[in-house]
Amino acid sequence: MSFFNKVLASVGIGSAKVDTKLEKDSAAPGEVIRGVVEITGGNTEQKIDDIYLSLNTTYLKESDDKKYTVSGLIDRFRLSQSFTLAANERKEIPFTFNLPVDTPLSFGKTKIWVATGLDIKNAVDPSDNDYIRVVANPLMDSVLNAVSSMGFRLREAECEQAPHRLRSRLPFIQEFEFVPVAGPFRGKLDEMEVVFFPQSNGETEIMMQVDRKARGLGGFLAEALEMDETFVRFTVTNADIPYMQQKIQSVIAKYA
Predict the structure, then answer these.
(1) Which of 104, 105, 99, 132 is nearest to 30 (CA)?
(2) DSSP code string of 119-146
(3) Are 188 and 236 members of one domain?
(4) Residue 255 has pLDDT above 90, yes or no
(5) Are the C-beta atoms of residues 80 and 100 closer than 8 Å to each other?
(6) What's the rounded Cα separation, in Å, for the pair 131 and 99?
(7) Please, which residues have CB within 8 angstroms of residue 183's CB and are 6 or more apart in sequence?
(8) Residues 142 and 114 in one domain
(9) Which of 27, 116, 215, 238 gives 20 to 30 Å between its CA and that of 137?
(10) Same domain flag for 119 and 237
């Protein structure tokens, strides 16, 4: 390789291109994702130091009483050791990884994408982004359907920075905000927020924030002081699916 070609490669001119193809564009947390990374060499030979996939989303972060949107890393997977890619060479690298159980769902403003990157020393690293639709697993779907059947409508779903007491592996949580438009809790609740904390053993811990509707002067004072909000945590399993609506309704009724 001539010195001129080396210089071209080092600034990213004529460099490698990457394209990631997913076997399917939707999956539930915990499911296997398969695909292949296609790499095409540029005009010059280049050493690829690393190939990686990263699973990402965005979330709201608050600082100095202002909220702004930032990118959040869910997980990162290394696919290959370093190798040399010849000029115009095409290479395919298959991959398989499990979608983490705490991956947010594709509801509301929440978007999830797989970013592919090549690490090329002293070069402009090529990358590729592929959006993936993350759907609820049967247990989470049962919870969402039960809430809907009780007359709640999903108003918003968004990832937000997690307070320290709720923070686990990720710096954010996904909140599902519901309002009662029919059913037994219309007129009793202003809204209800639901957060999932999935476990790897087929269980999901749920945190609900139940916002009672203000009643009379005492109710308005409680609302003004945010004393009308109740937090409750409980666990559901696959065995609860046939009776999910009854279970969740009984929990809400204690605080409505």
Answers:
(1) 99
(2) E-TTS---EEEEEEEE---HHHHHHHHH
(3) yes
(4) no
(5) no
(6) 13
(7) 149, 150, 151, 152
(8) no
(9) 116
(10) no
Question: Contact 42/151 with Cβ under 8 angstroms?
Answer: no
Q: How far apart are CA 150 and CA 152, in angstroms?
A: 6
Reference 205, options 230, 174, 233, 244; nearest CA is 233
- The answer to whether the beta carbons of residues 10 and 124 sit under 8 Å apart is no
Among 134, 160, 177, which residue terminates a domain? 134
What are the structure tokens assigned to 247, written together?
Answer: 């279970």
Contacts of 106 (CB under 8 A, 6+ apart): 26, 112, 132, 133, 134, 135
Which CATH number belongs to the domain containing residue 23 in this structure?
A: 2.60.40.640
Whether residues 124 and 144 share a domain: the answer is: no
Three-class secondary structure of residue 155 per DSSP: strand
In the chain the first and final C-alpha atoms are separated, in Å, by 74
- Do residues 215 and 160 share a domain? yes
Q: Summarize pLDDT for 216-245 with one digit per residue, the tens.
A: 444 444 444 444 457 889 999 999 999 999
175 plus 231 within the same structural domain? yes
pLDDT in tens, 188-222: 888 899 999 998 778 999 999 888 654 444 444 44
**Res. 175: pLDDT tops 50:** yes
Residues 45 and 124 in one domain: yes
**Which tens digits make up the pLDDT trace of 97-122?**
999 999 999 998 899 999 888 776 65
The residue segments making up the domain with residue 25 are: 3-134
Q: Would you report the helix, strand and coil content of the chain in percent, each value rounded to 5?
A: 20, 50, 30
Give dist(CA 194, CA 196) in Å, integer: 7
Give 123-141 pLDDT, tens digit per residue: 555 667 889 999 999 999 9
Query: What is the torsional sign of CA 233, 236, 241, 247?
Result: negative
